């Protein structure tokens, strides 16, 4: 597919600073930009993680095109390929179209039809339609190549961000590794593993803020489902903000997404205490919408502090999470996921499916 200038992400007025960063990395961030490029060249994941977590994240989509593939563990030759070739390259790109249809393709199309609502904003209708076709092709390619994965509503929100930021030749492999090795729990035939992840949020609050935990004790943590399920891509309407948040979510292990939501809850402490604890519906309504404005740098710092002070092993719910969950198979460092293979992801997936089938069988017998 021919690449046009419309393939470059456009932004809403709230993203003017982000657009400026796309043109060049200016002082005082110039040194940081060079540090990002050096870390990418050396595949220094620890340094990339530190840079992604620091104020401003990875600064620009130009730098993200280099860094995100490295963080996702793509081979160096592909990770540094930022040309405009077709996804996957050459005959390989076309071959997926000959694979059997995935069972979820009809739902994919329904969701893609609703994509690109908030960004980009300055494209003509035909340009938006072209992006939707690219998004549909990206998702369907991954699902056909890895048919064991189950599509979930909101997956297209994640893929939309990667499509707008990454070079076409990198998108398919990047989405595939993200799916199998970082958000696999959400692509199982059951949502139970995703719901179990939500139970970690009250556990974090119980340790970090007992008063707030008690205040929310009657409110189920389902308010966090949309945010955690979609890496916040469904709820953040600015490409600049969601790209900056993806910097740290890709640089940290998957459980960090849960700590982010715990930090968001704590940031609304005063507002929540102004709402009676015997009105869980009202509390749910407040928590199901992200605060505006969203100070991502402050929230990332707060989440990192929560993670360091109350690591997952201190959380009671952690013991009940499958050893094949991404929360545990990616536990430790960014490098853990970077060295895992798609075959590893499939093996973990199969183990999780067997565990889910066993639990269902026990319930039927009970």
List the helices and strands and how they pair.
Elements: H1 16-23, H2 30-42, H3 45-53, H4 61-71, H5 76-79, H6 90-95, H7 105-112, H8 125-145, H9 155-165, H10 168-181, H11 192-198, H12 200-208, H13 210-215, H14 225-229, H15 239-251, H16 256-267, H17 269-273, H18 280-287, H19 296-309, H20 326-329, H21 334-339, H22 342-365
Helix pairs in contact: 2-3, 2-4, 3-15, 4-15, 7-8, 8-9, 8-10, 10-22, 12-16, 16-19
GO molecular function, one term: GTPase activator activity
Region (Disordered): 1-25
Biased composition (Basic and acidic residues): 8-25
Description:
The protein is mainly alpha-helical. The protein has a domain at 187-365: Ypt/Rab-GAP domain of gyp1p, domain 3 (Cyclin A, domain 1, Orthogonal Bundle). Helices cover 60% and strands 0% of the residues. It is built from 22 helices and no strands. The protein has helices spanning 16-23, 30-42, 45-53, 61-71, 76-79, 90-95, 105-112, 125-145, 155-165, 168-181, 192-198, 200-208, 210-215, 225-229, 239-251, 256-267, 269-273, 280-287, 296-309, 326-329, 334-339, 342-365. Helix 3 packs antiparallel against helix 15, helix 12 packs across helix 16 (256-267) and helix 16 crosses helix 19 (296-309). The radius of gyration is 20 Å and the shape is globular. The chain starts with 15 loop residues before the first helix and ends with a helix. Residues 1-10 and 84-91 have low confidence and may be disordered. Residues 8-25 have a biased composition (Basic and acidic residues). One of its GO terms (biological process) is endoplasmic reticulum to Golgi vesicle-mediated transport. InterPro entries: Rab-GAP-TBC_dom, Rab-GAP_TBC_sf, TBC20/Gyp8-like. Keywords: GTPase activation. This is Rab-GAP TBC domain-containing protein.
